[in-house]
Design a protein that fits this description.
By secondary structure, the chain is an alpha/beta fold. Helix content is 45%, strand content 14%. Strands 3-2-1-4-5-6-7 form a seven-stranded parallel sheet, sandwiched between helices. It binds nicotinamide-adenine-dinucleotide. Nicotinamide-adenine-dinucleotide is lined by residues 17, 19-23, 41-42, 66-68, 93-97, 120, 147, 149, 192, 194-195, 197-200. Nicotinamide-adenine-dinucleotide binds next to α1.
């Protein structure tokens, strides 16, 4: 197939947290489908360079930014658009999962963890979308996917700020899908259950792993590649009626 007939030919994408895990799988699939990709990373430049080298096609780039820093988050889409020449697709994937037990932490540590999680998992995506808007409008419309979580619905007893941030991200997705539809900007939330990545390795490969897999009648967790396929569906332009939707990808482990 010639590259110009690929579904994402001539489109440019920013994927946050793309140096590993789910973000890496998304960056690889979008590039394979013809997009030029900005691989954002927070730390570990070597991993980002390795992902860059794995991407099919030409014109990709890597961009470092600490998303806990509001200024760095807000600058990221402008830097991506400058490097790629345009911006059509944004995937807010970067996130942290930090346990912060309400019964174990003192108030200062509780607040620190709360602030960090909200800053990276919720405020940063909102700032990135805000800054991306002018570039998506310039492209005549675009697609935004926010990677949320089953935890938004099921609760996160040991990481409540994570659940709150992801629930907020779902709500942000829905609010802006409605607001930005007239500009032909489509927003979808993708809410995975457990996925084996660096973030979850210690749980899934430890003594709790078997119990976690048994939460699903498939007796397994999702793969990062499966999450990427769902993101592709949301950004390809062939299913824009999805806008405002939150797609569960949890192997039937939880229904809402
Ligand atoms: P991961 O830890 O492998 O990757 C997270 C990415 O976010 C990394 O690239 C990391 O560099 C980046 N990041 C974290 N803090 C950052 C910061 N301050 N500045 C810049 N970048 C930062 O995790 P993953 O499993 O690939 O998760 C990706 C997304 O999927 C996250 O939003 C996560 O909450 C969500 N999710 C994951 C699972 C799972 O089971 N793995 C389940 C539900 C949702």
């Amino acid at each position: 197939m010639s590259t110009s007939s690929l579904p994402l030919a001539n489109r440019s994408a920013l994927v946050t947290g793309a140096n590993r895990g789910i973000g890496r799988a998304i960056a690889k699939l979008l590039a394979e489908q013809g997009a030029r990709v900005a691989v954002h990373f927070g730390s570990d430049q070597e991993a980002a360079e390795n992902v860059l080298a794995e991407l099919a096609g030409q014109g990709h780039t890597i961009l470092q930014a600490d998303l806990e820093d509001a200024n760095e988050a807000a600058a990221l889409p402008h830097r991506a658009a400058e490097k790629l020449g345009r911006l059509d697709i944004l995937v807010n994937n970067a996130g942290i999962y930090e346990t912060h037990g309400i019964d174990t932490l003192g108030p200062a540590e509780w607040q620190k963890s709360w602030d960090r999680t909200i800053a990276i998992n919720l405020t940063a995506p909102s700032l990135i979308i805000h800054a991306a808007l002018e570039h998506l409008e310039h492209s005549g419309g675009g697609h935004i996917v926010n990677i949320t979580s089953r935890g938004a619905y099921r609760g996160e007893p040991d990481a409540p700020a994570y659940g709150v941030a992801k629930a907020g991200l779902n709500s942000l997705t829905q609010s802006l899908a409605n607001k930005l539809a007239p500009k032909r900007i489509h927003l979808v939330g993708v809410a995975p259950g457990w996925v084996l990545t660096d973030m979850t390795e210690s749980f899934l490969e430890g003594p709790e792993g078997e119990g976690i897999r048994q939460q699903s009648p498939l007796n397994r967790t999702a793969t990062a590649d499966e999450i990427a396929q769902v993101v592709l569906l949301a950004v390809c332009g062939r299913a824009d009626a999805l806008t405002g939707g939150i797609i569960d990808v949890n192997c039937a482990s939880y229904f809402r």
